[in-house]
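Journal club prep — side note

Before the paper discussion, L.F. wants everyone to see what a predicted structure for a comparable chain looks like in token form. Sequence:
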Amino acid sequence: MFRRFRVNGSSMEPTYHEGDRIIAIRYGVLCAPKAGDVAIVRDPRDGRLLLKRLVRTEPDGRFYAAGDNERASTDSKEFGALSRERIVAKVLWRYYQMKDN
């Protein structure tokens, strides 16, 4: 249900930084994805887990995901909208911060 993750890369700066540790809860019975959530998503091209912000929902239930650092983010502008199955977990909190924000 709850999972720990370590942030890799700079795509979510200034919100999250490389090395930050976060706790996320799997989407399902207790919560459903919505625009504005910071979420763990699965890249449809290679299956990697990515940290992104859900920015828009399509009428067919697909989601657009974007990094807060637009220049350094691989996101829906490259791989398109994500099906609900690709939205893994919602970030609840950061329990270790690599640098002061």
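L.F.'s comment for the group: The domain at 2-96 is CATH 2.10.109.10 (Umud Fragment, subunit A). Keep this in mind when we get to the figures.
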